[in-house]
Amino acid sequence: GAVVSQHPSRVICKSGTSVKIECRSLDFQATTMFWYRQFPKQSLMLMATSNEGSKATYEQGVEKDKFLINHASLTLSTLTVTSAHPEDSSFYICSARDASGRDNSPLHFGNGTRLTVT
Amino acid sequence: AQKVTQAQTEISVVEKEDVTLDCVYETRDTTYYLFWYKQPPSGELVFLIRRNSFDEQNEISGRYSWNFQKSTSSFNFTITASQVVDSAVYFCALRSGGGYQKVTFGTGTKLQVIP
Protein backbone atom coordinates (compact mmCIF):
# COMPACT_ATOMS: atom_id res chain seq x y z
CA GLY A 1 0.00 0.00 0.00
CA ALA A 2 0.87 3.64 -0.29
CA VAL A 3 3.45 4.82 2.19
CA VAL A 4 4.14 8.26 3.54
CA SER A 5 7.41 8.72 5.32
CA GLN A 6 7.77 11.48 7.88
CA HIS A 7 11.08 12.46 9.39
CA PRO A 8 12.15 12.93 12.10
CA SER A 9 9.84 10.99 14.37
CA ARG A 10 11.00 12.89 17.41
CA VAL A 11 12.92 16.10 17.82
CA ILE A 12 13.92 18.17 20.81
CA CYS A 13 15.12 21.67 20.19
CA LYS A 14 15.92 24.77 22.15
CA SER A 15 13.66 27.76 22.18
CA GLY A 16 14.45 30.15 19.37
CA THR A 17 15.78 27.58 16.94
CA SER A 18 14.06 26.33 13.80
CA VAL A 19 13.06 22.76 13.04
CA LYS A 20 12.31 21.20 9.66
CA ILE A 21 10.00 18.23 9.27
CA GLU A 22 9.93 16.28 6.03
CA CYS A 23 7.03 14.39 4.52
CA ARG A 24 7.64 12.10 1.57
CA SER A 25 5.30 9.97 -0.47
CA LEU A 26 7.36 6.89 -1.23
CA ASP A 27 5.46 5.10 -3.96
CA PHE A 28 3.06 7.63 -5.36
CA GLN A 29 2.90 11.24 -6.45
CA ALA A 30 1.09 13.70 -4.25
CA THR A 31 0.18 17.06 -5.71
CA THR A 32 -1.43 17.94 -2.41
CA MET A 33 -0.22 17.24 1.08
CA PHE A 34 -1.77 18.29 4.35
CA TRP A 35 -0.16 19.23 7.64
CA TYR A 36 -1.96 18.56 10.90
CA ARG A 37 -1.18 19.37 14.48
CA GLN A 38 -2.37 17.33 17.42
CA PHE A 39 -2.25 18.46 21.02
CA PRO A 40 -2.25 15.78 23.74
CA LYS A 41 -5.55 13.97 23.96
CA GLN A 42 -7.06 16.13 21.26
CA SER A 43 -8.04 15.75 17.66
CA LEU A 44 -6.05 16.53 14.56
CA MET A 45 -6.30 20.13 13.51
CA LEU A 46 -5.52 21.01 9.93
CA MET A 47 -2.81 23.64 9.75
CA ALA A 48 -2.29 24.03 6.04
CA THR A 49 -2.71 22.50 2.64
CA SER A 50 0.49 22.16 0.69
CA ASN A 51 0.33 22.27 -3.09
CA GLU A 52 3.21 21.26 -5.31
CA GLY A 53 4.72 24.26 -7.03
CA SER A 54 2.56 26.88 -5.37
CA LYS A 55 2.04 28.59 -2.04
CA ALA A 56 0.45 26.70 0.81
CA THR A 57 -3.05 27.50 1.98
CA TYR A 58 -3.15 28.10 5.70
CA GLU A 59 -6.10 27.59 7.99
CA GLN A 60 -7.42 30.49 9.99
CA GLY A 61 -5.29 31.24 12.98
CA VAL A 62 -2.16 29.51 11.71
CA GLU A 63 0.79 31.85 11.30
CA LYS A 64 2.28 31.30 7.87
CA ASP A 65 5.52 33.04 8.83
CA LYS A 66 5.83 30.76 11.82
CA PHE A 67 5.09 27.53 10.01
CA LEU A 68 6.81 27.61 6.65
CA ILE A 69 5.68 25.03 4.14
CA ASN A 70 7.49 24.09 0.98
CA HIS A 71 6.22 21.56 -1.54
CA ALA A 72 8.99 21.53 -4.07
CA SER A 73 8.27 18.22 -5.73
CA LEU A 74 5.47 15.73 -6.18
CA THR A 75 6.87 13.54 -3.44
CA LEU A 76 8.17 15.96 -0.82
CA SER A 77 6.67 18.60 1.42
CA THR A 78 8.47 20.22 4.33
CA LEU A 79 7.20 22.07 7.37
CA THR A 80 9.63 24.38 9.13
CA VAL A 81 8.75 25.64 12.58
CA THR A 82 10.67 28.88 12.82
CA SER A 83 11.90 30.39 16.08
CA ALA A 84 10.26 27.62 18.01
CA HIS A 85 8.84 28.23 21.46
CA PRO A 86 7.63 25.79 24.11
CA GLU A 87 4.03 26.35 23.06
CA ASP A 88 4.92 24.92 19.65
CA SER A 89 5.57 21.58 21.28
CA SER A 90 3.10 19.20 19.73
CA PHE A 91 2.60 16.19 17.49
CA TYR A 92 2.73 17.12 13.81
CA ILE A 93 1.37 14.77 11.17
CA CYS A 94 1.47 15.05 7.43
CA SER A 95 -0.78 13.32 4.97
CA ALA A 96 -0.94 12.89 1.24
CA ARG A 97 -3.34 11.59 -1.34
CA ASP A 98 -2.33 9.74 -4.42
CA ALA A 99 -2.83 12.19 -7.28
CA SER A 100 -3.62 9.38 -9.67
CA GLY A 101 -6.02 7.65 -7.36
CA ARG A 102 -9.76 7.53 -7.30
CA ASP A 103 -11.61 10.45 -5.84
CA ASN A 104 -12.50 8.53 -2.72
CA SER A 105 -9.03 7.24 -2.01
CA PRO A 106 -8.03 7.78 1.58
CA LEU A 107 -5.40 10.10 2.84
CA HIS A 108 -2.21 8.30 3.74
CA PHE A 109 -0.58 9.57 6.89
CA GLY A 110 2.99 9.76 8.01
CA ASN A 111 3.88 8.41 11.43
CA GLY A 112 4.06 11.89 12.88
CA THR A 113 6.75 14.01 14.48
CA ARG A 114 6.75 14.75 18.17
CA LEU A 115 8.33 18.14 18.67
CA THR A 116 9.49 19.23 22.10
CA VAL A 117 10.80 22.74 22.52
CA THR A 118 12.76 23.34 25.71
CA ALA B 1 -18.80 24.18 6.91
CA GLN B 2 -18.03 20.64 7.89
CA LYS B 3 -18.26 19.14 11.32
CA VAL B 4 -17.72 15.71 12.80
CA THR B 5 -18.97 14.88 16.28
CA GLN B 6 -17.82 11.95 18.32
CA ALA B 7 -19.78 12.35 21.51
CA GLN B 8 -18.03 9.53 23.34
CA THR B 9 -14.74 10.77 24.72
CA GLU B 10 -13.67 7.54 26.39
CA ILE B 11 -15.11 4.06 26.50
CA SER B 12 -13.97 1.11 28.58
CA VAL B 13 -15.09 -2.41 27.85
CA VAL B 14 -14.08 -5.82 29.05
CA GLU B 15 -12.38 -8.04 26.53
CA LYS B 16 -14.77 -9.96 24.26
CA GLU B 17 -17.53 -7.42 24.69
CA ASP B 18 -18.93 -5.65 21.65
CA VAL B 19 -18.56 -1.89 21.46
CA THR B 20 -19.99 0.76 19.15
CA LEU B 21 -18.30 4.07 18.49
CA ASP B 22 -20.63 6.82 17.38
CA CYS B 23 -19.98 9.41 14.69
CA VAL B 24 -22.32 12.14 13.51
CA TYR B 25 -21.35 14.47 10.70
CA GLU B 26 -22.52 17.69 9.12
CA THR B 27 -21.88 18.87 5.59
CA ARG B 28 -23.66 20.81 2.89
CA ASP B 29 -22.02 18.83 0.14
CA THR B 30 -23.97 16.15 -1.65
CA THR B 31 -20.79 14.28 -2.44
CA TYR B 32 -18.57 13.47 0.48
CA TYR B 33 -16.49 10.70 1.97
CA LEU B 34 -16.36 9.30 5.46
CA PHE B 35 -13.44 7.57 7.08
CA TRP B 36 -12.44 5.87 10.28
CA TYR B 37 -8.86 5.91 11.49
CA LYS B 38 -7.22 4.19 14.43
CA GLN B 39 -4.45 5.85 16.40
CA PRO B 40 -2.63 3.48 18.74
CA PRO B 41 -0.44 4.84 21.55
CA SER B 42 2.53 4.95 19.19
CA GLY B 43 0.82 7.81 17.37
CA GLU B 44 0.52 6.74 13.76
CA LEU B 45 -2.83 6.88 12.04
CA VAL B 46 -4.11 3.62 10.62
CA PHE B 47 -6.76 3.78 7.92
CA LEU B 48 -9.71 1.47 8.61
CA ILE B 49 -12.46 2.27 6.15
CA ARG B 50 -13.85 4.82 3.70
CA ARG B 51 -17.40 5.23 2.51
CA ASN B 52 -18.76 7.63 -0.11
CA SER B 53 -22.04 9.43 0.28
CA PHE B 54 -23.75 7.41 -2.43
CA ASP B 55 -23.05 4.06 -0.90
CA GLU B 56 -25.13 3.34 2.16
CA GLN B 57 -24.35 -0.32 2.31
CA ASN B 58 -23.07 -1.42 5.63
CA GLU B 59 -19.75 -3.17 5.66
CA ILE B 60 -18.20 -5.90 7.71
CA SER B 61 -14.52 -6.68 7.86
CA GLY B 62 -13.68 -9.37 10.33
CA ARG B 63 -14.60 -8.11 13.79
CA TYR B 64 -15.23 -4.61 12.45
CA SER B 65 -18.48 -3.36 11.01
CA TRP B 66 -19.77 0.02 9.98
CA ASN B 67 -23.30 1.36 9.84
CA PHE B 68 -23.79 4.35 7.53
CA GLN B 69 -27.16 6.10 7.72
CA LYS B 70 -27.58 9.28 5.68
CA SER B 71 -30.99 9.93 7.22
CA THR B 72 -29.38 10.52 10.60
CA SER B 73 -25.96 11.65 9.27
CA SER B 74 -24.27 8.93 11.21
CA PHE B 75 -21.42 6.55 10.48
CA ASN B 76 -21.05 4.29 13.48
CA PHE B 77 -18.31 1.74 14.00
CA THR B 78 -18.77 -1.52 15.89
CA ILE B 79 -16.06 -3.83 17.13
CA THR B 80 -17.29 -7.31 17.91
CA ALA B 81 -15.58 -9.44 20.54
CA SER B 82 -13.15 -6.69 21.43
CA GLN B 83 -9.51 -7.47 22.12
CA VAL B 84 -6.85 -5.66 24.11
CA VAL B 85 -5.10 -4.77 20.84
CA ASP B 86 -8.15 -2.73 19.90
CA SER B 87 -7.26 -0.23 22.62
CA ALA B 88 -6.58 3.04 20.81
CA VAL B 89 -8.10 6.36 19.90
CA TYR B 90 -10.48 6.12 16.98
CA PHE B 91 -11.18 9.07 14.74
CA CYS B 92 -14.08 9.55 12.41
CA ALA B 93 -13.36 11.91 9.51
CA LEU B 94 -15.20 13.66 6.71
CA ARG B 95 -13.96 14.92 3.38
CA SER B 96 -15.94 16.89 0.86
CA GLY B 97 -15.96 15.87 -2.76
CA GLY B 98 -14.43 18.97 -4.24
CA GLY B 99 -11.66 21.49 -3.84
CA TYR B 100 -8.54 20.44 -2.08
CA GLN B 101 -10.51 17.81 -0.26
CA LYS B 102 -9.21 18.56 3.17
CA VAL B 103 -10.32 16.21 5.88
CA THR B 104 -12.16 17.23 9.02
CA PHE B 105 -11.62 14.99 12.00
CA GLY B 106 -13.84 14.32 14.95
CA THR B 107 -12.44 14.71 18.44
CA GLY B 108 -11.79 11.02 18.74
CA THR B 109 -12.98 8.28 21.06
CA LYS B 110 -10.48 6.60 23.31
CA LEU B 111 -11.27 2.92 23.61
CA GLN B 112 -9.79 0.90 26.42
CA VAL B 113 -10.27 -2.83 26.34
CA ILE B 114 -9.67 -4.38 29.73
CA PRO B 115 -8.38 -7.94 29.80
Describe, in plain words, how this protein is organized in 3D.
- The complex is a heterodimer of chains A (118) and B (115).
- By secondary structure, chain A is mainly beta.
- Chain A has strands at 4-7, 10-13, 19-25, 32-38, 44-51, 57-58, 67-73, 76-81, 90-96, 108-109, 113-117.
- By secondary structure, chain B is an all-beta fold.
- Chain B is built from no helices and twelve strands.
- In chain B, the strands form three sheets. In chain B, strands 2, 5, 6, 10, 11 and 12 form a six-stranded mixed sheet that branches. In chain B, strands 3-9-8-7 form a four-stranded antiparallel sheet, with no helix packed on it.
- In chain B, strand 5 and strand 6 form a beta hairpin.
- The radius of gyration of chain B is 14 Å and the shape is globular.
- The chains are: A mainly beta (118), B mainly beta (115).
- At the A-B interface, strand 4, strand 5, strand 9 and strand 10 of A face strand 5, strand 6 and strand 11 of B.
Note the topology.
The complex is a heterodimer of chains A (118) and B (115).
Chain A: E1 4-7, E2 10-13, E3 19-25, E4 32-38, E5 44-51, E6 57-58, E7 67-73, E8 76-81, E9 90-96, E10 108-109, E11 113-117
Parallel strand pairs in A: 2-11
Antiparallel strand pairs in A: 1-3, 3-8, 4-5, 4-9, 5-6, 7-8, 9-10, 9-11
Chain B: E1 3-5, E2 10-14, E3 19-21, E4 24-26, E5 32-39, E6 46-52, E7 59-61, E8 64-69, E9 74-79, E10 88-96, E11 103-105, E12 109-114
Parallel strand pairs in B: 2-12
Antiparallel strand pairs in B: 1-4, 3-9, 5-6, 5-10, 7-8, 8-9, 10-11, 10-12
